[in-house]
Amino acid sequence: MIMTLTRLKLMSVTLASLAALSACGTEKAEVQKPASLIGTETHAYYDGSDNDLLTAGLGTAGLQGPEPQLADPLNPTVEEIRRLTIYFNFRALVDVTDAGGYGRLYGPKGEGKVAGHEYLVMGTIDGLKQPVTYMIQVPDNFDKNDPCLVTAPSSGGRSVFGAVGTVGSWALPKGCAVAYTDKATGIGMQFLGEGLVYDMHGRLVKKSDAPVPFQLDETEALKAYAAENPLHIALKHAHSRDNSMKDWGRIVLESIRVGFYILNKYHQPEQGGKVYDKDTVTVIASSISNGGYSSLKAAEQDGDGLIDAIVVSEPNVSPDMASVGPVSVAWGANELALNGAQFLEYSSKVNVLLACAMLSEPRDLPLRAYIPLGDAGLANRCQTLAEKGLVKGDTAEDRSRDARAQLRAYGVLEDSSLMDGFSVFSEIWPAVVGDYAMAFGRYGVEDQLCGVAIGATSKTGQLEDYPAERKQVNFAKSTGMIPSNDINWVKKSDAGWQRAQFTPNPENGLFDHDATSALCFDGLVQQDPAVATGMEEVRNSADLGGRPAIIVHGRRDSLIHVNFASRSYYALNKAKKGDASDLHYYEVRNGQHFDALSMLPAFAAKLAPMHYYFEQSLDLMWDHLKKGAPLPPSQLLDTKERGMDPAGTVPPLAADHMPAIAAAPGKMEITFDGDRLTVPE
């Protein structure tokens, strides 16, 4: 049955009675509530029919179908927001089509619904101004005699529901409890003029003294800024003045403790049974992208032995390569020194050069034709860079080829260029560079770094008031990054505040994809001490304490590039730990960062779903922990493109396209000889 808000409140009030009933009258060990938690956790039980933990009652067919509709768009219920949130997060991260393999080759089989209990609670982390949200899901098939818990920090800046479709889709049907967290990012937004924010359920509420995941202190500077810019929006990750990424590992460790607390309070075995703790619960640290970084960082910091194993996909890691001697990676005829370039550093490099490099790329590259400003805008970016001495060449094409050559020499793989049209079209690089530079430097919304701000824009790019019905569901539909759901980076020009990518360069009058902001942020990345401090705070040691671990990464990843991320992390771990390392690295030839793009035929023809290998890696780790099965050696997975017929039809994904992770990979094995990582071409 679908829980109403009243029902949710009633369940929260009766949590104590639920705990008493679960003990069936027997004595239970005393349960200590973590001191970090704020208030009382809310609870809902989903019967797996009308509503459930994994699909919010939609089932596989619902996830594949149209957007769920609201009874009253201006007053959505908690359950309607939850359903929308799960729907959009699933479809943003996973190819949910049958043709793409969902429900056949990966993901839950059948309806996909999972009955069980869901608990939501907020907490604090020492050193952070803003709270963290945790969610613990306990399926009905949870095995109290052989308990397991899987961590699920959200990817990107997503909400606490962000990893339901990735980690939850494997763990819940397996019978494992799942410890989710939004990592103190989440869909934290404050609409400055109205003082509106979101609570932990995603409801739009008035800013007050009540604890919510994000609200700014009412300083005089903020009041003045909001009065002058009432349509601007503050974003938690960018504007909280917390560099929360430095604590994402600690937050994951705390989510495990919260999971133990919930299990012991409400799901404890009868008298004589084991208490749920690090000695009795199998804990796998997991997730993808930023969530993958968070779980790896948690394992690096886990001095209490909470984590048994790690399985992550395309983690946004920042390996501390300076902590070891020179290390390189070789693939085919290529070799690159792994110098520890961090996410913000290489993102800024790509942000400056890629729009220019795009000009000389094939015209049929997916989404290239839809890039705003067209080829003229790309050529103008090349001209602006040439005027700054950053690219060479007499013509726009020459300058574009020089930009491309610089990226290749820097370490950006040719394989990732398939995704370049999407990257420029979606403005992903201005988004991450602006967001992370502000976060690392601990800048506030009123600092208006590099002249950019955040606000809703019209179809023509003008700053406008965000429609009320869109505010109500933005928690559900947003990625937690900007641009998203018609909220964009904006800057001021002679025409007023407008979408940043549509403002002319004040130096030469060209519309060039906002080279001005890109170069300003690049200067901060290279020279701002505050930003540099923030970047160093998030470095990875790659010391996993000898725990068994798997990293999966796609060679075509155009966001978290393999040379700077997983290849470097794996090499650093091997260089430090040698034979004591139990880290395994599986690189997917046609894998990339956004599986959901494969729902578009142009991408489906060429890409392999990362989620297939993420689940396979979790299965391998499970068999390793439970049965002692050896983990396969590190290897390249030589996936096959599906192709497209002349009519534009892409055949369904089949097992033949997706070779299994092999116990004996032969020539596909990835090796490390002490100072060089060798990856098959």
TrEMBL record:
GO terms for biological process: butyrate metabolic process. It holds the Pfam family 3HBOH. One of its GO terms (cellular component) is extracellular space. InterPro entries: AB_hydrolase_fold, OHBut_olig_hydro_put. GO terms for molecular function: hydroxybutyrate-dimer hydrolase activity. Residues 1-19 form the signal peptide. Keywords: Hydrolase, Signal. This is D-(-)-3-hydroxybutyrate oligomer hydrolase. It comes from Emcibacter nanhaiensis.
